[in-house]
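Progress against Task 2.4 (sequence-to-structure conversion) is shown through the following example record, which the project officer requested during the mid-term review.
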Amino acid sequence: MSMKGTPDEPRFSVELLEGSAALRDVIDKHIRDQTLALKSAFLVADLGVIVRQQVRWRAEMDQIRPFYAVKSNSSPVVIEILAALGTGFVCSNKVNRKSKICLISSLSLKLDYSSSHSIFVSLLKLFLK
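Structure tokens generated for the chain above:
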């Protein structure tokens, strides 16, 4: 996936910490790399939290399927992890609905995930009026 104006530049990257790697060392290296490449902002996140919360949900409430509000964080990495874990999606933003449909549909091909596991709230509002 690419950012506007920079077609060859990746929009995100995920790095896994190896057993002995210290988080601080990885962040310091990334800051040096970003500075040398004249880039500015980056985000460090523990994506394992998403997996752990999903496992906890399944253990406590296995009969209730979680649905994730895409507008809260539409990061492709987050959506891909949640889709792989079997989470459903709620898309409610009219402006971005089309891109979210495309994103979730593209995940369908990659992860054998059906876009029927998505609720498009703004479409429901039209039918309920």
